[in-house]
Design goal:
It is built from 12 helices and 6 strands. By secondary structure, the chain is α/β, with parallel strands linked by helices.
Length: 286
């Protein structure tokens, strides 16, 4: 079988999981390969994501590695069998490959945890805001709208977003666009699976609050992925140390942020500070 010239994030992660399990079992690559009738170099290619592995051999390796979690095993089987195709395939060549990887990851996610510093999260952007951020690129805007279907009223992917107050003060597109964007943040919280909190300027703790990230929660917690966005693309982290660190960081950010937005409380008197009150304050100052 020819080796892949492009390795998707799913393929890379599948191989990385096999390598992590093998090393955890204390097996050398040549010895693990012998268990499924292949040489060490061939298994190394699989662990690097350069080629795939058939389900029967995957089952043998999981048994040999002593991994008995059925949920994890089933998810890993699906990961290995997937052809990687979906609605995002139509955008190949129009958006960065890391964006395609993100869309594929979201398609199998059970929930998302997002922290943004200077921008409204892409899944929560209104069209006119996205147009400014994406420089009017029609294909990228269409791609973003397609991603947003995952949390629309027709979707059910839970999203918990913590947004730094700085993102609310940025006037991308001008005051009218930002008022529309802030109104939408309040409106979208009427969906039961969308939670939004604002991290205020007055927060006195530093928890790497200058770095945006998103946790894509997989069908098993060991298959969660941390996404770090950069101007030239995105990087993905799925090693146990990164997962523990960013899960902990997000929990801390939630505890430091203002109470979540609740559109249903809009007409109540509000004696305390909360995310809804801060958004309204900023909106009326536009």
């Amino acid at each position: 079988m020819a080796l892949r010239t492009h390795i998707s994030e799913r393929q890379r992660r599948f191989g990385a999981e096999l390598r992590r399990l093998r090393e955890g079992a204390g097996l050398a690559v040549k010895d693990a390969g012998a268990l499924v009738g292949m040489g060490g170099p061939q298994l190394s290619h699989i662990e690097a994501g350069r080629t795939g592995l058939d389900p029967d051999r995957l089952t043998v390796l999981l048994d040999a590695y002593g991994h008995t979690d059925e949920t994890y095993a089933a998810a890993l089987h699906r990961m290995g069998l997937s052809n990687g195709k979906g609605w995002w395939s139509a955008f190949k060549g129009f958006v960065h490959t890391s964006a395609l990887d993100l869309a594929e990851s979201e398609s199998t996610a059970v929930s998302l945890s997002s922290y943004e510093t200077l921008l409204i999260p892409g899944l929560l952007q209104v069209p006119r805001y996205s147009e400014v951020i994406l420089s009017g690129d029609e294909k990228k805007m269409e791609f973003r709208r397609s991603r947003q279907q995952a949390i629309s009223s027709d979707g059910s992917l839970p999203l918990h977003a913590v947004i730094h107050e700085a993102a609310l003060h940025s006037r991308f597109g001008g005051p009218r666009v930002m008022r529309e964007q802030l109104d939408y943040l309040v409106e979208v919280t009427e969906l039961p699976h969308v939670t939004i909190q604002i991290l205020p300027f007055r927060c006195t703790e530093y928890v790497s609050t200058d770095t945006s990230f998103m946790i894509v929660h997989g069908p098993h917690s060991d298959l969660d992925t941390v996404l770090m966005e950069h101007p030239g693309g995105s990087t993905y982290h799925g090693d146990p140390e990164s997962l523990v660190a960013y899960h902990s960081k997000f929990e801390r950010l939630k505890s430091l942020a203002l109470p979540e937005l609740e559109a249903s409380r809009a007409l109540r008197s509000r004696a305390d500070h909360d995310s809804w009150g801060l958004i309204q304050h900023i909106r009326y100052a536009l």
